Amino acid sequence: MSINTIPIADNHRLSLPTIDMPPRILLGAGPSNSHPRVFAAMIAPTVGHLDPTFIRVMDEVSELLRYAWQTDNEFTIATSGTGSSAMEAAFANVVEPGDRVLVGVNGYFGRRMVDMAGRYGADVRCLEVTWGEAFTLEAIRQGMETHRPQVLALVHAETSTGVRQPLDGLSELCREHDCLLLVDTVTSLGGVPLHVDAWGLDIAYSGSQKCLSAPSGVAPITFGPRALTKIHNRRTPIANWYMNAELLGKYWAGSPRAYHHTAPMHLFYALREGLRLVAEEGLAERWARHQATAEAFWAGLEELGLTPHVPREIRLPSLTTVRVPEGVDAAAVSRRLLTEYNIEIAGGLGDLAGKVWRVGLMGYNARRETVAVLLRALAEVL
Ligand SMILES: Cc1ncc(COP(=O)(O)O)c(C=O)c1O
């Protein structure tokens, strides 16, 4: 039988209706709902990944990210992938085999950092506190003195616990120890006060699907001058092709721009619009909106007799962990919110599984009316 005479196996042909997804209100740990303008931007035409008009979009994304992060870092781009791809880019580029990396582990994403740093050959050391607490500057100082790391890695906004890690004083400490400061800002960028340059962060990365109100799939990352010096003077090659900063740099800033991979341009249109919304609103106003919305939610929780898990001083506005009252089935409540009210909230992760709900009020969803809808539904379900 020649290749042209093989019969078509028609039993494999599927007939399905058009896709019909429910209009969820996404108040979990992310993704959050995209802003309608972001979706509108995504229907712009496809162009080539080296088309001058797309190169302009990339440049604009970099410029808007510099504003959102408050940095002058030239190397400020978005990787084609989710937040974890930017986390991977951070560790792959600045960690060499044998480098000592000190990771602050007070939640699930600190653990992921330990895993990633280890995969790049780091001698990983951990600082640990109970999930729901932050590290004090003094504890970090002691850790630095004991371990003498080349990289200190912390999660600014731990989505698994709702803790905001204070970063003041770390820039000086890291410079004293000739150590790079690497910070996960996935759940803080665009929603929680964050100043990459003023706080001396050498590497920061984020995601698109949280406070930036875009779909997941592109992930911002910025490398400061000290990080770039380390990258350019490595003894060993970067053990990751896709997230290699030198190759990505030629696509984002080379002259001429060099093909690296086929960027998912529609996701870049989305990120650009999400970031344009940040710039239009203004960072200070946006941070204040997230804070005010979270406070309205916390006040409503109190009226329902519910308690946030994290003390107010280190509580994130973008993600609140709420203690599950004695005798209440946490999963059953989440399930009813989803099936009866179309509202997604998240359950606890890791050490907090079954003990808390996680409620995200991020980006487009950080609004009073969203809080009101959630509180009413919670009151009815409980
Ligand atoms: C703090 C933090 N870091 C990293 C990630 C990983 O991002 P992604 O799931 O987009 O890969 C997340 C995702 O929720 C996160 O919350």
What features would you highlight for this structure?
pyridoxal phosphate; alpha/beta; EC 2.-.-.-; Aspartate Aminotransferase, domain 2; 382 residues; seven-stranded mixed sheet; three-stranded antiparallel sheet; binds pyridoxal-5'-phosphate; 2 domains; Aspartate Aminotransferase, domain 1
Count of DSSP H/I helices: 12
**Dominant shape:** globular
Bound molecules: pyridoxal-5'-phosphate
Q: How many strands in all?
A: 14
Mean pLDDT: 97
CATH class of the largest domain: Alpha Beta
The proportion of strand residues reads 5-15%
Distance between the termini: 66 Å
Main beta sheet strand tally, sense and closure: 7 strands, mixed
Helix content class: 25-40%
Order of helices and strands: EHHEHEHEHEEEHEEEHHHHEHEEEH
Q: Runs with pLDDT <50, length 5+?
A: none
* CATH architecture classification name of the largest domain: 3-Layer(aba) Sandwich
> Which fold name fills CATH's third level, the topology of the largest domain?
Aspartate Aminotransferase, domain 2
Q: What's the Cα radius of gyration?
A: 22 Å
SS-derived structural category:
alpha/beta
In CATH, what is the homologous superfamily of the largest domain? Answer: Type I PLP-dependent aspartate aminotransferase-like (Major domain)
Number of domains: 2
